[in-house]
Design a protein that fits this description.
Length: about 220
């Protein structure tokens, strides 16, 4: 089934009923939204990001029925991707899920800071986790040439203001992908406001192999 810009639920192409790690300290359900504005060569969910229409659609009613039946033992819902901040109507999805009484967390690459600020400002989500790929100078390399250093720096300047307003409801993390050095991580950490730390994550390869020559998955 094709993605439908008028139906944000058509972007849901992955569904994990139970996760103990996507929202630390909470038992959560994870929804994976297809499509992404980046082409990171180390992407863990390449098919989801680049070819979501090849993956099965998870029907809206299936998700909502599951949430209603399990809400007493779930602590929250995580919306991930892909890149959910690029989905038209994401706030409507969040509003519908919020009606179940479960708190929401959104994972994002941070390059659409206005969307994330709006979700927090409307109290549609309780937590936003942003991936800082590395130092801004390396963003073209780390994103498959989809984001310039200046674009990254501008987006994160806005995010840091949001973090100042919403405090611990905004967190920043960085994955130690191949090619990212200790000096790179120090440079990325130094960009953050003093009120926030950079959470480091180990790199876990996806189900597909990455070709060093092309920066794209092997066929």
């Amino acid at each position: 089934m094709q993605l439908d810009a008028n139906d944000p639920w058509s972007f849901v192409r992955g569904f994990q009923p139970v996760s103990l790690c996507d929202w630390p300290g909470k038992v959560s359900l994870v929804l994976f939204f297809g499509s992404c504005n980046l082409r990171c060569p180390t992407c863990h969910n390449w098919d989801l990001a680049t070819n979501p229409e090849a993956l099965p659609l998870i029907p809206r009613e299936t998700i909502l029925a599951f949430l209603r039946s399990r809400r007493n033992w779930l602590d929250g819902v995580v919306i991930s991707g892909g890149e959910p901040a690029g989905i038209p109507g994401l706030k409507d999805v969040c509003a519908t899920i919020s009606e179940t009484g479960l708190p929401l967390k959104v994972d994002s690459n941070g390059l659409r800071p206005g969307v994330l600020h709006d979700l927090l400002d409307r109290d549609l989500v309780q937590k936003v986790a942003v991936d800082l790929k590395g130092p801004f100078a390396k963003y073209p390399e780390l994103t498959g040439e989809r984001c310039t250093s200046l674009q990254a720096e501008s987006a994160f300047a806005s995010l840091f203001e949001t973090a100042g307003q919403f405090g611990s409801r905004v967190s920043f993390r960085c994955t130690r992908v191949p090619g990212l050095t200790g000096a790179d991580i120090e440079a990325a950490t130094s960009c953050l406001p003093k009120t926030h730390d950079l959470v480091l994550q180990d790199y876990v390869p996806g189900r597909i192999e990455i070709s060093p020559a092309s920066g794209r998955p092997d066929a």
